[in-house]
Design a protein that fits this description.
Blueprint (H helix, E strand, L loop, with lengths): L1 E4 L4 E4 L4 E2 L9 H28 L5 H12 L1 H16 L17 E2 L10 E3 L6 H18 L1 H14 L10 H23 L5 H34 L9 H39 L7 H13 L2 H9 L3 H5 L5 H10 L7 H22 L1
Subcellular location: Membrane
Keywords: Membrane, Receptor, Transmembrane, Transmembrane helix
Pfam family, one: Sre
Length: 365
């Protein structure tokens, strides 16, 4: 939705298709609003659970854990945006700064356009500041989510560069630097998108570019770490890398498995989101505008509902860790039979132990 501000003719891009949709407060649409509320509660639960487990279970380096939690905590941003925008979306509050007063009691529908005559004109932004502020927060959150893979790819690149001692040293400056640069980029890009300095095509291009860089870095890093892992499994090359380097390489490979699950979930979100946007843009299902708009808002607001479970269930130590029910879990574990470790797992453990003691022997010699 594009607004144009008074005499300055400044354009404002707001990520929605319908506002002042009065039917959302009536049956049966009210049920969808209640369903969305429950989805927000579930998303908040999974965000807290994922943040807690990622910090509690030291599966990866602390830098990666901190970056993951920072990205998850950003869900609070969309909660603030939803609280600010919901009254305007449902028509509970009306836009008071409209130049055309007759539109105050009208459901407003509009998609991206370059034609000023089709834009919604407002006198200024201060009159409906909560509404426009929520639009900026939504754009910032959407851009932050789209850059998740670049953040992880850069951190894993550092893990590959400092392969021999990355696990031994904290190097917390890496996480701080990545967060600062990422947030500055997101704030600037969200501001430019909010002021509609770019057309829809260039918005997609700017959003896609960091992900192409991220995929390139991740593929190269994965290839490099798999190569090191294979070398360590070859007894003829035991002395090429230290045990710490081998551990870090295996950690990186494990991280790539997690990223693959998150990538699949994000691709699914993007496909669903773009399909909804095109359906709204070409007005394919005019009778379902309200439903499609809710779906588009869900893609923006509830992406954490898909990504948090993807993170939790892609790593064994995350999946097996208890949350809010430790006592019950411990009681069950005490009465259960110890699982049998497979022969393949035993052989792998024996191999790792032998490599470890070989390296210790070389060190003492």
């Amino acid at each position: 939705m594009i607004f144009i501000v008074g005499s300055s003719r400044q354009r404002i891009c707001y990520p929605t298709y319908i506002i002042q949709n009065f039917e959302l407060l009536k049956f049966p649409w009210l049920l969808l609003e209640i369903s969305e509320l429950f989805l927000f509660i579930i998303t908040l639960f999974y965000s807290i659970k994922c943040s807690y487990i990622v910090l509690k279970v030291r599966t990866f380096h602390m830098n990666l854990s901190v970056l993951t939690v920072v990205l998850i905590v950003q869900f609070s941003e969309i909660l603030v945006a939803k609280v600010c925008s919901w009254p305007y979306e449902t028509g509970f509050w009306r836009l008071r700064g409209l130049s055309n007063a007759s539109l105050t009691n009208t459901t407003l529908k509009q998609w991206l356009t370059d034609d000023e005559s089709e834009m919604i004109e407002v006198i200024d932004l201060s009159t409906d500041f909560p509404f426009f502020f929520s639009g900026y927060l939504k754009l910032h959150y959407a851009i932050s989510v789209s850059n998740i893979f670049l953040v992880i790819a850069v951190e894993r690149s550092f893990a590959c560069y400092f392969l021999n001692d990355y696990e031994k040293k904290s190097r917390f400056w890496i996480a701080v630097a990545i967060v600062l640069v990422d947030q500055m980029f997101n704030l600037v890009v969200a501001y430019l998108f909010f002021l509609f300095y770019f057309s829809f095509f260039y918005m997609i291009l700017i959003t896609a570019a960091p992900n192409l860089v991220a995929i390139t870095l991740l593929l190269y890093s994965r290839h490099y770490n798999l190569k090191i892992t294979r070398i360590h499994e070859d007894y003829a090359h035991q002395s090429n890398y230290t045990l710490a380097a081998r551990f870090q390489a295996k950690e990186n490979v494990k991280c790539f498995n997690m990223i693959r699950m998150v990538l699949i979930s994000l691709i699914g979100i993007l496909i669903f989101g773009f399909t909804t946007c095109f359906a709204l843009y070409f007005n394919i299902f005019p009778q379902a505008d309200s439903l499609l708009n809710l779906c588009m808002q869900a893609v923006i607001n509830l992406s954490a509902l898909v990504m948090c479970p993807a993170i939790l269930y892609s790593v064994d130590s995350f999946r097996n860790h208890t949350f809010l029910c430790k006592k019950l879990k411990k009681k069950r574990e005490n009465t259960s039979i110890t699982p049998h470790v497979s022969t393949v797992k035993n052989l792998e453990l024996m191999k790792e132990t032998e490599i470890h003691f070989n390296q210790l022997t070389n060190t003492w010699i």
